[in-house]
Design goal:
Layout (H helix, E strand, L loop, with lengths): L1 H23 L3 H8 L31 E4 L3 E3 L2 E10 L2 E12 L2 H21 L11 H20 L1
Antiparallel strand pairs: 1-3, 2-3, 3-4
Helix pairs in contact: 3-4
Length: 157
């Protein structure tokens, strides 16, 4: 009986922590309002501000004035996306997502949560070499590939 109660307590604590983590991300209505249209497959989603990352900085592109390029439209298991990368000098200064089309509302919700973190990782790493977001592996890979395609265009020009 002691073992059974230990597992029960551990399960309750883990469940409670999961609920707290879910609620700390914000209310779904607030995310929908901030993201714009909630219809899947019909919206473009820009990403938001930078945050710290554990990766060392890598220089992306050499040059002078601010320039930008669109990455390739990447198809992934739950939709497609493309990014636009802006560089100033040899630093990535902005990454936006002008094209995002998802197959269903759940995929849209995952993308809405993952894209700001992916942008933060790219800006912190100053390259396409990012860790990605757990639970959004396909979105992360497509984002990374599109960023790399945009950086390749900027290097070639």
């Amino acid at each position: 009986m002691k073992r059974a109660s230990w597992y029960l307590v551990a399960g309750v604590v883990a469940g409670f922590a999961g609920v707290l983590a879910l609620h700390s991300r914000g209310a779904p209505a607030a995310r929908s309002a901030a993201a714009g249209s909630s219809q899947p497959g019909q919206s473009a989603r820009p990403s938001t501000g930078p945050s710290a990352s554990s990766r060392p900085s890598q220089r992306a592109v050499a040059g002078g004035a601010a320039r930008s390029a669109a990455g390739a439209l990447e198809q992934y298991g739950y939709g497609e996306l493309a990014v636009r990368v802006t560089v100033s000098g040899n630093r990535i200064t902005d990454v936006t997502v002008p094209a995002l089309k998802t197959n269903d509302p759940t995929s849209q919700q995952i993308a809405d949560q993952a894209i700001p973190e992916l942008k933060s990782q790219v800006l912190a790493a100053d390259s396409a070499g990012i860790d990605g977001v757990s639970g959004a592996t396909f979105t992360s890979r497509a984002y990374e590939q599109s960023v790399q395609a945009a950086l390749d265009k900027l290097r070639a020009s």
